[in-house]
């Protein structure tokens, strides 16, 4: 799980909810992994943003196979 210090990098602390977007580039396994990551981030308090929406954090998941 992410710690509060990692969730709110220095200088970015705010009372509003942090947002995250995940870009999936790769195979079908990436889709499953991406859903797992988004679930963890959501449980840690992040709001998941859809494609084309502005987010505080963007995670790019690529295929390594």
Topology:
Blueprint: H1 4-7, E1 19-25, H2 28-43, E2 47-48, E3 57-62
Parallel strand pairs: 1-2, 1-3
Describe this structure in words.
The protein has two helices and three strands; from the N terminus they run αβαββ. With 65 residues, it is α/β, with parallel strands linked by helices. It has a three-stranded parallel β-sheet with strand order 2-1-3, covered by helices on one side. The radius of gyration is 13 Å and the shape is elongated. The model is unreliable at 1-8 (pLDDT under 50).
Q: Given the helix and strand composition, which structural class is it?
A: alpha/beta
- Number of helical regions: 2
Largest sheet: 3 strands, parallel
Q: In order across it, which strands form the biggest sheet?
A: 2-1-3
Helix content: 25-40%
Highlighted features:
65 residues, alpha/beta, three-stranded parallel sheet, 2 helices, 3 strands, disordered N terminus
Brief summary of the model shown:
With 65 residues, this protein is α/β, with parallel strands linked by helices. It has two helices and three strands, in the order αβαββ. Helix 2 links the parallel strand 1 and strand 2.
């Amino acid at each position: 799980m992410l710690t509060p210090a990692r969730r709110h990098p220095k200088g970015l602390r705010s009372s509003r909810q942090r947002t995250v977007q995940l870009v999936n580039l790769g195979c079908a396994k990436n889709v499953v992994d991406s859903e797992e990551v988004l679930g963890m981030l959501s449980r840690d308090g992040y709001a998941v943003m859809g494609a084309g929406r502005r987010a505080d954090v963007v995670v790019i998941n690529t295929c390594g196979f």
